[in-house]
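re: ur msg from earlier - yeah i can do the zinc ion complex, just paste it... oh wait u already did. ok heres what im feeding in:
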Amino acid sequence: MALNKKQLAHLEKRLLDERDRALRALGKFDNMAKADRESADSDLAAYTDHMADQGTEAQEREKAAVFATKEGRYLYRLEEALRRMYSDPKHFGNCHTCENAVGFERLDALPHARYCIDCKRKEESAA
Ligand SMILES: [Zn+2]
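and the outut:
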């Protein structure tokens, strides 16, 4: 069953909202990376203080990098979903494996979902 116009409009908004959120999260990461480079250029007097904090800073950087990767991938999926929606709205919301409807409720929770819950479960149990 194809999604109706109202459902598509709702999912478009969901995708755009999620994309904004992901972009903001990624922008924050960029600013952090920039601040990091700037502090690396600062004078040597600050260096010793810097050393004391290095453990936690390295941990923070690592966390931020993982977050950015995950967020980056998520952003890519959201944009891919938007492209699918604009280029072929009639088929948006169909499972890429079995072509059954993914279902509006599942898409509302996960607007970039490409597979219905059955195919997703099969894929996960195969992995
Ligand atoms: Zn399926």
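cool cool. The first helix runs from residue 5 to 40. ping me if u need the other ligands too
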